[in-house]
Write a structure and sequence with these properties.
Radius of gyration: 22 Å
Helix content: 25-40%
Order of helices and strands: EHHEEEEEEEEEEEHH
Shape: elongated
Largest sheet: 4 strands, antiparallel
Number of domains: 2
Number of helices: 4
Number of strands: 12
Length: 215
Amino acid sequence: MARSLSAATIIRQAREIADQQTAAASVARVTDTECLGQLNTLLGIWHGMLVKAVPERFEEEQTITADGATSYDLPADHFLTLGVDALWGTQRMPLERIQYQERTRYEATGSDAEGYYLKAATVVLVPAPSSGTYYHQYVTAAPTFTATSDTVDCVNGWESWLVYGLAIHMLGKEESDATLWVAKQLEVKAEIDAAAADREAARPMRVVDTRLARY
């Protein structure tokens, strides 16, 4: 279940820790505008930690309708690719991920793609399929705060990592000691690393057969 918090709430909590509350945030030592910029930097790092542990939380799907082209544009919010499936009749079949050394392994064109690889801002299907439907599963990039009213899913109270990070930035600007909050931020990171991977605690990860069925 999502635990959404606004940027304003995260900023307020960070100000409380750094003892930089003020009735006029616009004239504070660290303005809300600066806080938003710093939060976006922290969000990128924080998002990366969560993606490493539970990529399925941020999973999206792109439908590709093949038209004979070799490559297709990646979604604007693409971060990492999880896999590509081909629709064969009514059943999906996973395509093989092609390593760079294998890029000439298949013919230039064909009726169906058997593999894929990423190139620049595109996903390349090989051989280039003349038609058909393909599904690209990917992980989205970190969200971006553009206003203090914007929200983010903090999952399980893990907004603390963002709060501590912002508070450390505030304390650093006034050259105050932030040692305690650096330690607390590391504690939250350790909790994320340990707990996030066990999102489905009753069903541990298992060995799977990665051999692909041939068409």
